[in-house]
Amino acid sequence: MRTSLITPLLLALAGAMHAPADAADTADQRSVAQAARGKYLVDTSGCMDCHTPFKMGPNGPEPDMSRMLSGHPEQLVMPPAPALPAGPWLIVSSGTNTAHAGPWGVSFTANLTPDPETGLGLWSARDFRATIRTGRHLGRGRAVLPPMPIPVYNHFSDDDLDAVFAYLRTIPPIRNRVPEPLPPAQRSAARP
User: Fold this and answer.
1) pTM, to two decimals
2) Cytochrome c domain: from which residue to which, for each copy (predicted)?
């Protein structure tokens, strides 16, 4: 009789002991799946085209993966942007594809790595969503400037944006302080 009471008790206790681990495993699996989805979205949405500096390779410009998603290199001081002739030309871009001059002034691509001082390390998923939804840093700061395709990325669902942010939290942090944008009047003095 005693054995029949102990066995169900031990089975219940064993099940309870494994439940948190199973729940944690499930949460870990969801987290890994979310980051994998975010990687897919980053890889297919052109994020690296501007946020990873280009370098010259044997076949021309190629992403410098040692600086993956770290934005405009802080040590690269840009000379004045060349003036474009009147007509349909609108944008001048740097060889690294991380600095862009146009009617808005000069914009520099942001550091998307999780570096806490110069990247997104102190941001929350809510901050990231607010930035994309409003076109303003942290949803309330300065405007996110061209060529960032905010009107296109606004079509991402919150789940997509959370996945992108989850992936960005998994990449190596790179300390790289990107210069502030320059207004149109200072466009000819593109200095960090």
Assistant:
1) 0.82
2) 33-172
